[in-house]
Amino acid sequence: MTIVLGDNQYGKAETHVVRVTKSGGTHEIRDLTVTVALAGDFAETHLSGDNSKVVATDTQKNTVFAFARDPIGDIEDFGLRLARHFVGEFASVYRARVHIDEAAWSHIGVGGKPHDHAFVRAGSEKRMATVTCTDDGSWVVSGVGDLLVLKSTGSEFHGFLKDRFTTLAETEERILATSVVARWRHVDTQVEWARSHDDVRRLLLETFALKHSLSLQQTLYAMGEAVLRARPEVAEIRMSMLNKHHFAVDLSPFGMANENEVFYASDRPFGLIEGTVTRDDAPEPGFAW
Amino acid sequence: MTIVLGDNQYGKAETHVVRVTKSGGTHEIRDLTVTVALAGDFAETHLSGDNSKVVATDTQKNTVFAFARDPIGDIEDFGLRLARHFVGEFASVYRARVHIDEAAWSHIGVGGKPHDHAFVRAGSEKRMATVTCTDDGSWVVSGVGDLLVLKSTGSEFHGFLKDRFTTLAETEERILATSVVARWRHVDTQVEWARSHDDVRRLLLETFALKHSLSLQQTLYAMGEAVLRARPEVAEIRMSMLNKHHFAVDLSPFGMANENEVFYASDRPFGLIEGTVTRDDAPEPGFAW
Amino acid sequence: MTIVLGDNQYGKAETHVVRVTKSGGTHEIRDLTVTVALAGDFAETHLSGDNSKVVATDTQKNTVFAFARDPIGDIEDFGLRLARHFVGEFASVYRARVHIDEAAWSHIGVGGKPHDHAFVRAGSEKRMATVTCTDDGSWVVSGVGDLLVLKSTGSEFHGFLKDRFTTLAETEERILATSVVARWRHVDTQVEWARSHDDVRRLLLETFALKHSLSLQQTLYAMGEAVLRARPEVAEIRMSMLNKHHFAVDLSPFGMANENEVFYASDRPFGLIEGTVTRDDAPEPGFAW
Amino acid sequence: MTIVLGDNQYGKAETHVVRVTKSGGTHEIRDLTVTVALAGDFAETHLSGDNSKVVATDTQKNTVFAFARDPIGDIEDFGLRLARHFVGEFASVYRARVHIDEAAWSHIGVGGKPHDHAFVRAGSEKRMATVTCTDDGSWVVSGVGDLLVLKSTGSEFHGFLKDRFTTLAETEERILATSVVARWRHVDTQVEWARSHDDVRRLLLETFALKHSLSLQQTLYAMGEAVLRARPEVAEIRMSMLNKHHFAVDLSPFGMANENEVFYASDRPFGLIEGTVTRDDAPEPGFAW
Fold it and tell me: Which of B55, B286, C223, D185 has the fewest CB atoms inside 10 Å of its own CB, making it the most exposed?
C-alpha cells in the first residue's frame, strides 16, 4: 500500500472588485466577487513544500485587479480572459477555473432621471459565471443565484406515495415559494452573453409563473425545458430549488376560517430539489462543472 | 443592600407571516416578520415563577397570525392594531412594542404584463416600522433598512485631525458606499404611511446622490435635513451608516495607472456613523425608541 | 422651527486584531475584535463638512493596532487604555466607547501536553467588554455572548394568562434552551477582571443548571441574583435570553410514544426575554450602557 | 434534438432533531441536523407531475423523527439505518444519501461535577457523516467541519513562481490559520465510528501542530497522510482548508517594530486549498461522494 496525492486544486477566493467606468460625467459600476481555482502540476508543494511551480494566491488576487483595469465586459468574457491567462502563462497550471458573482446596481433616480454617479443596489439576486480553461478547451457555465420566486396559487401536490410515516395532507392549492440557483452550460464560447443571460432569466421567471405546478420537480423541468427550447447556445441547465415551505395557519381555534390567506413561512427544514435538463445531443461537459 | 428587578420586557420575535389577498384572480402578497415585546407588571414571574399575569409568547404569535386575517394595510397600522390590542386586552401589559420588517415582492412580468399570482422578490432592502403603545399614547417610528448606496465620485475626505497614529492620505476623490438604516419618528399617528414612506425614501436617495460630500457625517445630516424640511409629519430621524470602504488598488507595481477605476471592496473593519437630525420644537420622544 | 443635529457618534467597527505573545518558545494568542465609537464636538463635520475636529476612523484602527503592541492584559484594561487615550488626546472627543469581543483559543494537545505554538478555537461563545470614558469618569461593562445552554428537564411553564388566542398547552416538563447574552456593569474600575469574569460565568451556568424553572424569566432573575449576591464588584447585570423552542414531536401517528425524548429544534419565531437585575444602592449607570 | 431529464435528486434538508436519553436521573443529549436526498425513478414527477413514485419530503422528515425514537448511536449508524430504509422501503428509490451534522454539548459542571441534565454547547466545530446506500452497497464518509486551527510560528512560504503580477514577499515566518473541513471515506461499514472519529480528529490536530509548514498544501498532505497511515479503515480523505490570512501590521509609521506580534485578521479574499490523500489500492469510491 502506498499513500498518494489525489485530486487537488487551490486558489484565491472571493476577491471583491468594484470597477468604475467613466464616460464623460456618466459613470457605470460593476461589482464582482471573483474566485480562482487552479489545478496542475502541484504535487511537489504537497509532498516536499517546494513551491517553485506554485502561483501564489496573492498573485492570483493581483491578477484579478490588474485585469479589471481593462474594460470588463460580460463576466463570462472576463472569466475567460482570466482563466486563459493562468493556463497560458504558467506551465504548471493545467486547469484554471474562475467563478464570478456579480451584484447589480442601478442609477439612483433624481427628478425622474438617472443620476450620473450615484447608485442603489438593485435586487438581492446575483448573476454568476463559472469559466474553466485547459490547454484543450474552454467551458462556460452561466447562472443566476438567490432568485426568490413565489406563486400564491396554481400549485398542487398530491398522489404521492404513502407509507406508515406519511402524514402530509394532499392539497390542490398551496403556496409554492423557492430560492432558485440555475446554472447553464453553453455549447461553446461564441455567445452574446448578456442577451443570452437576460433571455434565460426571463424564460425561467415566465415559466415559473405560467406553468401550473403539480410538483416542484415538474416546475423545475418545465423551466429548464423552456430554456433549452428557446436558446440553442445552452447545452444543459442544472437547477437547485430550495422549497421554502409556507404553511396555512390553522385559525379555527380562534373561530376564523383561513382559505389560504394567512401563511407561516418556515425556515427549516426545507425541501431541496435538484435536477438537470439537457439535450440528447449535447456536447460532452468536459471540465465545465 | 437589596437585590431588585430592573427594566425588563419579553415577547415573541420574528414571526414570519405571509398574507395573500385575492381580488378576482389577481393576488397581492405581503411578507412581514413581526417581533412583539411587552413590558408591565411581570415581577412575579421573575421572582416566584407565578405566570398568572404573563401573556405566553406563543399567544403573541397566534395573535399576529389572527390579526393578519384582516386586511393588513400599512405596517404602521398593523403594528398599531397589534400593540393597542396587547395594552388594551391585558391589565398587566403597560407597554407593547411591535417591530415589523417588510420584504417587497413584485409581480413577475410575462409578455410585458404583470402576472396575476406569481412574484419575484424585489430588492434586498426592507421597510420597517416600530410601534409602541401604552395606556397614555402611541408612538410610530418608520424606517428603511439594508439600503445599499454608492457614489463613484463627488466625495472627499480631508482636513481631519492628525496625530502620531494617522496615516490616512487626504483625498478629494473617493468612492462613498454605505449601508443605510434610517428610522424616523412621527409627530403623531395621523399619517398617510405609504405615501410618507415613499417620499422619505426618495428624499434620502436623492440627497445622497446630489449632496457633494466632504464627510459621511455631512451626507447623513443633509439626508436627515432634507427629510425634515419636506415632511412635517416627521419629528426626528436617526440614521446609522455603515461606511463600506472601497480602496483604490495600487496597480503601479504592474506598470498601470489607477485613476479611481479599480477598487477593492473591504468587509472589515468598517466605519460606523450614527446621527440624529431633529427639530428644536419636536414633541418629546416618549417611549418611541 | 429649526432643524438641529441631535445625538451622534462615529467610529471604526470590528478591527480584528490577533496578538501573539512569545515567552521562550511558548506562545499565547489573543483574538480581539474591537469597535470604537466617539462622541463630542462634531457638529461642524455634519453641518459644513469641516473635519478639523474629526479623528479619522482609519486613525482609530491604527491606534488599536499600535496599542496592541504593548501587553494586552484583560480586555477591560485594554478598552480602558484605548478609551482614555481618545478622550485624553483629542479635545473634541467628549466620550469614547470601546467594545471588544474576544474569541478563545486553546493549545492543541499533542501526546497529552499542550503544544507550544499551535492552537484550536475553544468554543463558540465570546467574552465581551464595553468601556466608556469621559473626562469625568470611566465605566466598564463586562459580558459573555452566544452562551448556549440547555436543560432537558427541570423546566415547567403553566398558569399563564389565557385569552381567545391562547392555544399553548400547559406543561410541567419541557426542554429549556437559550442563547444567553449577559452584560454586567461594575461598581468601579478596580476589579480583577479575569477572576471576576470566570466567576460570573460560573455562577450563570451553575444557576441555570440548579434552578428549577417555572419560567425563563424566573431563571434569568435567579442567574442575575446569584451573580449580584456573590460578586460585590457587580452593580447591575442585564441579560438577553433567546428562547430556542424545542417541540416534542408527535409520534403517535406512527404508533409511537414520545415521552420528551425526540424534539424538533425550531429556529423562528423565538421567545426573547430581556431583564435587568440590580442593587437598590447601585451607583448611577452614567454613560456605561 | 430531444430535451431530456438528466441527473436529479430531492429531499428534505436540515431537519433539526434533538434526542434526550435518560438513564436514571442522568440525561444525555444529541443534537443532529439531518439532510436526506433521494435519487431514483422520478422521471414522471418531472415530466407529467405524476407523484405516485415520490416519497414526500415531509415523510422523509417524519421518518427522521421516528427513527430518532430508537437509540441513535453514532451518526454513521443512524445514517445507515435511514438510508437503507429509504432504499429498502421504496422501489422507486435507487439511491439514498443522508448527511448529518452533529453539534456537541457538555454537561455543565456544578461544584466540580457534571450536572445531570444541564448542558452547555461544546465548541463550534461539528462532526459530520454522509451515508449513501443503493441496492448494491453502502458508503460512509465521516468528517469534521468548522475546525479552526492556528499556528503562530513554524510556517514559511517562499520559492513560489514570480510573474509580473507578483508582489507577495517571501517569508520564513508567518501565522498559519485555517478553517478545516475534512471528510474521509471508509473502506467498508464495519467501523467503530466514535473511536475512529476521535482518532482521526486527533491525528489531524497533532499533525497540524507538529508539521513544520512550507505551504498549506504540504500541511494538508501531511495531515491526510497521518490519518491514512494510522487508520486502515480510511480509504481516502478529502480536505478543504480556508487559508485565513493574518497580516503583520506595519507599525513603523508609529516608530514601532512588529516582530510578528500584532496581526490584522482579514476576512476576504481568502486562500482556498483543496486536496485528496488516498491509497493506491483503495476500493473504488462508488457513490460515496
Answer: B286
| Residue range(s) occupied by CATH 3.10.270.10 in chain C | 9-136, 145-289
The CATH number that domain C145-289 falls under is: 3.10.270.10
Residue C79 Rama label (left phi>0; alpha psi -120 to 50; beta): alpha
Q: Which residues contact A66 (CB under 8 A, 6 or more apart)?
A: B251, B254, B256, D165
Fold (CATH) for C9-136:
Urate Oxidase (3.10.270)
Confidence of residue A257 (pLDDT cuts 50, 70, 90): very high
The single residue of C57, C59, C189, C278 carrying the catalytic annotation is C57
CATH level 2 (architecture), domain B142-289? Roll (3.10)
- Name every residue whose Cβ is closer than 8 Å to that of residue B113 and which is 6 or more positions away in sequence: none
The verdict on a CB contact (< 8 Å) between C167 and A268 is no
Residues in chain B within 8 Å Cβ distance of D255: 164
Which of B53, B85, B115, B245 is flagged as catalytic?
A: B245
Any catalytic annotation for residue B117?
no
Instruction: Assess whether the previous peptide bond of B269 is cis (omega < 30° from 0).
Output: yes
B267 vs D: CB within 8 A:
yes
Distance of CA A82 to the CA centre of its chain: 19
Transcribe A68-128 into DSSP letters: TTS---SHHHHHHHHHHHHHHH-TTEEEEEEEEEEE-EEEEEETTEEEEEEEEE--S-EEE
- Residue D271, pLDDT > 80, answer yes
* Mutation choice for D interface testing from B163, B168, B268, B270 by most D CBs within 10 A: B268
Task: Enumerate the CATH 3.10.270.10 domain ranges in chain A, comma separated.
Answer: 7-136, 144-289
Rounded distance between C-alpha atoms, residue C121 and residue D21, angstroms: 29
Query: Of A73, A66, A71, A133, whose CA–CA distance to A99 is shortest?
Result: A133
C-alpha cell at C187: 461598581
CATH number of D1-136: 3.10.270.10
Query: What's the whole-number mean pLDDT along residues B10-32?
Result: 97
Instruction: Name the residue with higher pLDDT: C124 or D211.
Output: D211
The overall average pLDDT reported for chain C is 97
Length of chain D: 289
Q: Which residues of D touch A280 (CB under 8 A)?
A: 1-4
Residue B259: its pLDDT value, please? 94
Please list the residue range(s) of chain B that carry CATH number 3.10.270.10. Answer: 7-136, 142-289
The Cα–Cα gap between B17 and A263 comes to 6
Q: State how far the Cα of B217 lies from the Cα of C46, in Å rounded to an integer.
A: 5
- Among 3.10.270.10, 3.20.20.70, 3.40.50.150, 3.40.50.10860, name the CATH number for the domain at D141-289: 3.10.270.10
A57 is catalytic: yes
Summarize pLDDT for B56-65 with one digit per residue, the tens. 999 999 999 9
Q: Is the pLDDT of residue B1 over 90?
A: no
Write out pLDDT tens, residues D119-176. 999 989 999 999 999 999 999 999 999 999 999 999 999 999 999 999 999 999 999 9
The CATH number of A144-289, from 3.10.270.10, 1.10.10.10, 3.40.50.720, 2.40.50.140, is 3.10.270.10
- For residue B114, list its beta bridge partners: B109
Residue A2 φ/ψ, nearest 5 degrees: -120, 140
Contacts of B167 in chain D (CB under 8 A): 253
At C1, the pLDDT band (50, 70, 90 cuts) reads confident
Domain A7-136 grouped into CATH 3.20.20.70? no
Quote the pTM value. 0.97
Residue whose C-alpha cell is 520564513: D172
Q: What are phi and psi of A173, to 5 degrees?
A: -155, 110
Enumerate the CATH 3.10.270.10 domain ranges in chain D, comma separated: 1-136, 141-289
pLDDT in tens, B219-273: 999 999 999 999 999 999 999 999 999 999 999 999 999 999 999 999 999 999 9
Is B12 noted as a catalytic residue in this protein? yes
